[in-house]
Amino acid sequence: MNTTAAIVLGEEAHIVAREPDGPRGESPLTAAERDDYSNLILLCPTDHTLIDKAPEDHSVEALLKIKADHEAWVRDSLGPKVDQAEIRWAQIVDQLSDKLSLDTWALDVHAFFDGGPITLAVTTEERLRECALWIAKRPWPAGQDKLKAAIRNMGIFLNELLSEFNVYAELRNGGERRRYPAFYKIPVWDTELYNSLLAEYRNNRTYLSDLTLEITRYINLFGDLVREDLDPSFRHDEGLTEVLAEGQPLEYGAYVPQFAREDLEVALETQALVAFKDSRASRSPRFKW
Q1: Separation of alpha carbons 66 and 84, rounded Å
Q2: For the range 254-262, what are the long-range contacts, defined as Cβ-Cβ under 8 Å and sequence gap of 24 or more?
Q3: What are the tens digits of pLDDT across the range 7-18?
């Protein structure tokens, strides 16, 4: 049967009766307090009749507990939901920050910008390699597409840096550091071979430093996106991540690599590494050997 008539599903009942001679009416509550929300409970018509017909079985304390339990259920069931994806993103941000060791990043990679041979602590190399693998294996939460793309590409560039570094790198210092040697230094002089190897060495060094600068740009983009969408206070005190580059011997300048506005869209694409190889000469800062 279809009808447009209103149907009463709940009735407003008094826990302590409005009148002293009503159900549970013996109480020090004033007339105003008896009509206050704290003394009212919403019941179906059947339960309303039941508790008022048998007040000895439905005490004031019991009805107050029923009301409190129901209000707690409403808060838990219908209140603001915990965003599980946001919680997972917060965990990813914290884990990635630790794996990159952002507080020591400038010192960890400064040798890529020194005038001398590039060396990298084995512990740092292993941590960064594990970080790249961790990124590649992430089951990403929903949302945050820009942040996800930035982290993914950061992992790709980390892998590229370590792979290129290890083409020539060899263990030194009792196995504690890996060193990228000056492989152009040949034991028997050969002008053509020497010039060829020197050119390769310089190109390789420039590529390694370009990759390190690009990863640092991704680190700063990562921080910007976290502050924009997840946590405005993320690394607020530490600020942006820098690199240290040698000018005069033992004199270092601090540089803060960031993506130019026109490079941001490409930086978040799936083919960012390919695009980087074509356009890295236009990046700033940039160092050559």
Answers
A1: 31
A2: 254/106, 255/213, 255/285, 256/220, 257/213, 257/214, 257/216, 257/217, 257/220, 257/283, 257/285, 258/217, 258/220, 258/221, 259/217, 259/220, 259/221, 260/284
A3: 445 567 788 888
Query: What residue type is assigned to position 198 of the chain?
Result: L
CA dihedral 34, 36, 37, 41 (to 10 degrees): 20
Question: Cα separation of 198 and 186, whole Å?
Answer: 10
Amino acid identity at 176: E
SS3 of residue 87 by DSSP: helix
**Model's pTM, two decimal places?**
0.72
Distance CA 285, CA 135 (A): 26
Cα gap 18→14, rounded to integer Å: 7
* Range from 57-71, 188-202, 261-275 carrying the lowest mean pLDDT: 57-71
CA distances from 19 to 22, 37, 67, 246, 276 (A): 5, 16, 21, 88, 82
Asked if residue 183 lies in contact with residue 168, where contact means CB atoms within 8 angstroms, the answer is: yes
Instruction: Answer yes or no: are the C-beta atoms of 25 and 17 closer than 8 Å.
Output: yes
